[in-house]
Write a structure and sequence with these properties.
Belongs to the class-I pyridine nucleotide-disulfide oxidoreductase family. It holds the Pfam family Pyr_redox_dim. Keywords: FAD, Flavoprotein, NAD. It is a single chain. The chain is of the alpha/beta class. It has three domains: 170 residues, FAD/NAD(P)-binding domain (3-Layer(bba) Sandwich); 110 residues, FAD/NAD(P)-binding domain (3-Layer(bba) Sandwich); 106 residues, Enolase-like, domain 1 (2-Layer Sandwich), CATH 3.30.390. Helices cover 29% and strands 24% of the residues. The relative contact order is 0.12.
Length: 477
């Protein structure tokens, strides 16, 4: 249990988002004392400005679309989305931007909280400056874990910063629906927010320097682009933005071909940068404002006390992977503090091995994209001998029952030398629930001949697994 009225703890965690909470919780469960330092809301980006509010904004449109694509149900749907009700539901998932519930959870988990900005000021030392300028110096007996997350990047486009653009924070917390929205970017945030605002009724233009969802299988971006256009989004691919200006009439975006787009608001979704400036990294011999390199136990090389967990280490910028790292980090910090054996081998309890080649991800667009592991290109680039198996999801009996005119695609990437699945991608209505089975296959390196005995229930969309496995015997490398 955490000691009362002390400035000395076994573990100090900078950052009170889901990652920091999990690092502290696992360490406390392992018998240590811990304190979290947080300058904003306990619960972090995910709870208030990212995962939860963004998916709440998207879900109402997904539910409406699902009803509209099933005969008998679509005849009963006669109205449009209620924007006020969607925003109110979004607000409920952020607890109206109050962290009271999260603070109570910290108390129940015996984790202390220091409100304020934390900086490393020495080895195992953190100085916290509160909102009134007061300071408190904390000392760690064993470890400091940096879990400060990341910030949206605003690229150096002339006039963009002066135009007060939205980032993901403004997009997920907006109180009014803009008449029109221009989205700069082609990744997950850009796609999801374009989907949400188009479904809510804004006129949306999406501007991307390349194809959508780069790094995924190409067909994923192609199908999502088609889905956005079906929603009425003006999708401009392979074009850049050369200038932005705001005046009383709104925002004007000039593209590289000198054409112009006008909108009420502009959203920048072009990537993330580490939230590691002004936290005293130089004290530990690190460069301020950079991604913090770590080993698979999330410890900073050359240090026996400093850890960096979640977005700030730049490994995988996803909440669920950050929490996965946090479980490993909290456990290993406790083990090292008590001189217990450390299981840091590949797939060991104290190693974040899955970050390298078994990362699951869902893009909540229309259609959805669910993926895990390596794409065909990534697998070939890594030197694997691969077999690619594609299947039309619309041919699966369960899919045709789920939605009239179901359209989608599934792909397996198979390592022919070891006969295991390296990666899987699914695109289609609400395919998110297919990803976990694929994740187990990839992480567990389950041989194809064994997967044959994992019989999918009929009639479900998961029957696609049977069809993909049938294709494994005759797909071309």
């Amino acid at each position: 249990m955490t000691a009362d009225k002390t400035n000395e703890y076994d573990l100090i965690v900078l950052g009170g988002g889901p990652v920091g909470e999990n690092v502290a919780d696992r360490a406390v469960q392992g018998g240590l004392t811990a304190i979290i330092v947080e300058s904003e809301l306990v619960g972090g980006e995910c709870s208030y400005w990212a995962c939860m509010p963004s998916k709440a904004l998207l879900r109402s449109a997904q539910a409406l679309r699902a009803a509209q694509h099933v005969a008998g149900a679509k005849e009963a749907v006669t109205g449009a989305l209620d924007v006020r009700a969607v925003f109110a539901r979004r607000d409920s998932f952020t607890s109206n931007w109050s962290d009271d519930g999260q603070v109570k959870w910290l108390e129940s988990a015996h984790i202390d909280l220091a409100r304020g900005h934390g900086r490393l000021t020495g080895e195992r030392e953190v100085t916290v400056t509160d909102a009134d300028g007061g300071t408190r110096v904390l000392h760690a007996r064993h470890a400091v874990a940096i879990s400060t997350g990341s910030d949206a990047v605003v690229p150096p486009i002339p006039g963009l910063r002066e135009a007060s653009p939205w980032t993901s924070r403004e997009a997920t917390s907006a109180e009014e629906l803009p008449d029109s929205l221009a989205v700069i970017g082609g990744g997950v945030v850009a796609v999801e927010m374009a989907t949400a605002y188009a479904a809510l009724g804004s006129t949306v233009t999406l501007i991307a320097r390349s194809d959508l969802l780069g790094g995924m299988e190409p067909f994923a971006g192609e199908r999502v682009a088609a889905g956005l256009r079906e929603l009425g989004v003006d999708v401009r691919l392979n074009t850049g933005t050369s200038a932005v200006r705001r005046d009383d009439a709104g925002v004007t975006i000039t593209l590289d071909d000198d054409s112009e787009i006008t909108a009420s608001e502009v959203l920048v979704a072009t990537g993330r940068s580490p939230r590691s400036g002004d936290i005293g990294l130089e004290t530990a011999g690190l460069e301020s404002g950079t991604w913090i390199e770590v080993d698979d136990t999330l410890r900073v090389p050359g240090s026996d006390w400093l850890y960096a967990v979640g977005d700030v280490n730049g490994r995988v910028l996803l909440t669920h992977q950050g929490k996965y790292q946090a479980r490993a980090a909290g456990d290993v910090i406790a083990a090292r503090a008590k001189d217990e054996p450390v299981d840091a081998d590949e797939w060991g309890r104290h190693a974040a091995t899955a970050d390298h080649a078994a990362v699951p991800q869902v893009t909540f667009s229309i259609p959805e994209v669910g993926s895990v592991g390596l794409t065909e290109k990534a697998a070939r680039d890594a030197g694997h001998e691969v077999k690619v198996v594609d299947y039309d999801l619309g041919w699966v009996a369960g899919a045709s029952l789920y939605e009239d005119g179901f359209e989608g695609q599934a792909r397996l990437v198979v390592d022919t030398a070891r006969d295991v699945v390296l990666g899987a991608t699914f695109v289609g209505p609400e395919v998110a629930e297919l990803v976990q089975a694929a994740t187990i296959a990839v992480v567990g390196e389950v041989p194809i001949k064994r997967l044959w005995h994992a019989v999918p229930s009929y009639p479900t969309v998961s029957e696609v697994w049977l069809r993909l496995l049938e294709g494994c015997g005759r797909a071309s490398a």
